[in-house]
DNA sequence: GCAAAAGTGTTTACCATACACCCATGG
DNA sequence: CCATGGGTGTATGGTAAACACTTTTGC
């Protein structure tokens, strides 16, 4: 829980610390057991949910800002963030009377119409994917909950955040066709069923096990080890690991993965 | 030529009309006779060149702003603009002493350090492609020239504009693999050699004529007409036109064009 | 021995690629 | 008739896609 005075400080003094008119929204996807989730925050004393967002410090890089925002929410700082689109409809961040009342309740004071949090805001969208059990969600100063939601049952979000989420998912799925994914998302040694499940979950569709494995192996992205994982009452699958060299090259140069 | 007082108005009063800290840079590619060009502006009383840029009005959409900026430079308003990346290094728009002197020369007055044009600026990048003979280049208030440059001989540009240009070209070439291009770039009826040349020029490489035509036809993107164009001393090529239905569907859903 | 999951190989069909010769036109 | 550019078809190879049976493991 964030201390009350930190919240008030943020509302009252943030205008000196952050760039006006600009924000960053991070769509953090969490992968876990064949489910794709997204990290959402609930506003204090309101039942509105939002993406993990924040502002850019006066002398801060965009990607640094996005990294900092996600770190504040999750504790993680080794996340592969991807800028995907900037959202700037003049009305996108329009605040209702209820939102202003809400801020006034928190600060126990009056909030002027030209308050920095009420200005038109252009938001730069970033997305990232993480193994969600690694994350320790922390609310931000304006929120009292920070939780994972299943991608298919996300509620109505504030502003245009449902749209931003949809665009992020589109961008992520598009990216998967040109760059590998999985490093930092899977354990160092993983099984074919594990990486197969990861791809199926992100793409939201079934992929033929045999063809899938054949492709990753023939591209040289993963290498079979001489070890197996014991998974209880079933045949023990072999372990694989990424060929970091080829993986990084594929990240940089792009590949064609026609799943 | 822009009247002198318009320039001074822009410098002195722009802060009331535009969002601070934000700008738009447009990379306008011009296609003409197997050459790819880009529209650049030269700053007044300086030999620095830049991309076509501008600011966002207080109540204006991002894409409207980009369209307006390009229209001001080119007279065109039916351009297919594509947002591709947002650039926000804190130092990217750093102004040198010479730049400040330059503004002071134009306004014939002193420019305070916190002047709106000197603030840190995050720039939203858009690119577009046009047939360059349709364009009537007009300088902006800070520039005295607006000209096409060949993509391979672009000079050193201000700020990070060379980088923005390189990223725009990468994004354009990537997009060509997923979306068709040519509508509004070619005449309504065009020949196979014409569209073939367009693709070769944009991609910067040779494409087999026969395979190229086969692909566009088999995807149904273009349809052969029962007319030919007379091109002088050679065999008259057939005319084709886009199947707008399929073209738009391909724009929307994406296709795979592995050239 | 049975249920559940993992491992593996072959065939097919399509498509990308490479490649060369003939035709039309105006001068 | 010649120079220039346009039009067209085929053969090949690679690979994505479809598909099913066997093996392992713990209970």
UniProtKB/TrEMBL annotation, chains A, B:
<dbReference type="Pfam" id="PF00293">
    <property type="entry name" value="NUDIX"/>
</dbReference>
<dbReference type="InterPro" id="IPR036388">
    <property type="entry name" value="WH-like_DNA-bd_sf"/>
</dbReference>
<dbReference type="GO" id="GO:0016787">
    <property type="term" value="F:hydrolase activity"/>
</dbReference>
<dbReference type="InterPro" id="IPR000086">
    <property type="entry name" value="NUDIX_hydrolase_dom"/>
</dbReference>
<feature type="domain" description="Nudix hydrolase">
    <location>
        <begin position="19"/>
        <end position="173"/>
    </location>
</feature>
<dbReference type="InterPro" id="IPR036390">
    <property type="entry name" value="WH_DNA-bd_sf"/>
</dbReference>
<dbReference type="InterPro" id="IPR015797">
    <property type="entry name" value="NUDIX_hydrolase-like_dom_sf"/>
</dbReference>
<dbReference type="InterPro" id="IPR054105">
    <property type="entry name" value="WHD_NrtR"/>
</dbReference>
<keyword id="KW-0378">Hydrolase</keyword>
<dbReference type="Pfam" id="PF21906">
    <property type="entry name" value="WHD_NrtR"/>
</dbReference>
<protein>
    <submittedName>
        <fullName>NUDIX hydrolase</fullName>
    </submittedName>
</protein>
């Amino acid at each position: 829980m964030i201390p009350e005075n930190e919240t008030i400080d943020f509302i009252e003094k943030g205008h000196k610390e952050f760039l006006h008119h600009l924000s960053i929204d991070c769509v953090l996807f969490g992968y876990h057991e064949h489910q794709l989730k997204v990290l959402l925050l609930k506003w204090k004393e309101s039942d509105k949910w939002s993406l993990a967002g924040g502002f850019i410090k006066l002398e801060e890089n965009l990607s640094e800002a996005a990294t900092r925002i996600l770190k504040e929410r999750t504790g993680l700082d080794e996340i592969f963030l991807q800028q995907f689109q900037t959202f700037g409809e003049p009305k996108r961040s329009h605040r209702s009377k209820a939102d202003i009342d809400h801020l006034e309740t928190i600060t126990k004071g009056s909030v002027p119409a030209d308050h920095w949090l009420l200005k038109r805001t252009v938001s730069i969208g970033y997305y990232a994917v993480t193994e969600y059990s690694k994350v320790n969600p922390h609310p931000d100063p304006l929120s009292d909950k920070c939780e994972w939601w299943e991608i298919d049952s996300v509620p109505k979000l504030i502003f245009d955040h449902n749209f931003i989420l949809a665009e992020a998912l589109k961008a992520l799925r598009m990216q998967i066709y040109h760059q590998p994914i999985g490093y930092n998302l899977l354990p160092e040694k993983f099984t074919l069923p594990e990486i197969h499940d990861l791809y199926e979950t992100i793409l939201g569709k079934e992929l033929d096990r045999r063809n899938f494995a054949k492709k990753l192996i023939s591209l040289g992205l993963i290498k079979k080890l001489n070890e197996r994982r014991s998974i209880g009452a079933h045949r023990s699958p072999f372990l694989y690991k990424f060929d970091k060299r080829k993986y990084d090259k594929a990240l940089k140069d792009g590949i064609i993965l026609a799943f």
